[in-house]
Amino acid sequence: MEEEDNPIKVGDIIKDCYKIIRSITDGSDRMIFCALDTSMKQVAIKLELDTGEQTAVCIEAAILKILDESIHIPQFFRYGIHLNYKFLAMELMGPNLIDLVNYKNLYKFSLHSILKFGIQAIETLQVVHSKGFVHRDIKPGNFLIGNSSNTSGILKLVDFELCKKIHKVDGIITKPTNKGKFRGSLMYASLNSHKLVELGRNDDLISLLYILVELYNGSLPWSDIDDEEKIQNLKQHYHGRKLLKWLPKQFLEFESCILSLDYTTDPDYAYLISLLKQAASENEIDLNAPFEWEEEMNEERDRIIKNHTKKSSYSSPDENQTELTEYTATIIEEE
């Protein structure tokens, strides 16, 4: 959309609280901006055309408020209406896993990063599920790192548009009787989604397993295929050692544990985490060590500060405004 056709533009102030400073994504009915609040802190502003119906921004705002206490969920600030748009002010995030892995020469992460991310992702899903929701769109693009040097090692889950309440009858989780719809992305959706079965907590975990396999191996057996039926057939064929042959042996039990679940079964999140920790121990991996991208970002940050110091009469730049421009999202240095 051309800026002159866009009713929301850089410099606008929303509700006397948020001054828009740059566009992140642009569209005719949905936009995301970076803005400054009254304390000069950068926040994300999502706007969606107000159609009079429940919108994705409305759904996300409601769910973020419910999940707000978790460090693995972006912080909710405010929801309201501006002009003809519903808006959501929330924590500004850094790049997602796709951005981070694309920055590397090979499309894959180290086993250390896979295990550490897997543990955080399970913790995140446990929070979402404990609040009574199934995410239904677990994919690498929906896991973002924090937007500061202090939070670039924390993965946060976003995009709750497809999120749905877990079905309960008289307070007891009960398998839905209605036919489901395909939800998620072809690459990471569970077989239940292909079969149009209503998705549960187990399906979020299957999608996570596919992510871990892809980001460690560099691809999935169906990565280059677009046909849904062919992808479904490959997912039915590739499991166990066929899917997990390059990963530590604990992943066989990890997969088996998830596949044993149905809609009503409570996942044993602690056991799944223990399997990943066991894999780390057997491979002499220190899970307290930073992610590989944290080290790369620190090196880039040091380079920016060093170059700035050479050009500036000041001893150092304002660290709160140091941006890592080689990443798709801004990483702000915070004290």
Question: What report would you give on this structure?
Answer:
The structure is a single chain. The chain is α+β, with helices and mostly antiparallel strands and 335 residues long. It folds into two domains: 11-91, Phosphorylase Kinase, domain 1; 97-282, Transferase(Phosphotransferase) domain 1 (Transferase(Phosphotransferase), domain 1). The protein has helices at 56-67, 97-102, 111-130, 191-194, 201-217, 228-237, 241-244, 250-259, 269-282, 292-311, and strands at residues 13-14, 18-25, 30-36, 42-49, 76-82, 85-91, 133-134, 143-145, 155-157, 164-165, 168-169, 172-173. The strands form four sheets. Strands 1-2-3-4-6-5 form a six-stranded antiparallel sheet, covered by helices on one side. Strands 7-10 form a two-stranded antiparallel sheet. α3 (111-130) runs antiparallel to α5 and α5 runs antiparallel to α8. The longest helix is centred in the middle third of the chain and has 20 residues, at 111-130. The two termini are 37 Å apart. The relative contact order is 0.11. Mean pLDDT is 88; it is low at 311-335. Its EC number is 2.7.11.1. This is non-specific serine/threonine protein kinase. Residues 18-292 form the Protein kinase domain. One of its GO terms (molecular function) is protein serine/threonine kinase activity. It comes from Streblomastix strix.
Please describe the structure with a list of short key phrases separated by commas or semicolons.
single chain, 335 residues, alpha+beta, Phosphorylase Kinase, domain 1, 6-stranded antiparallel sheet, two-stranded antiparallel ribbon, 10 helices, globular
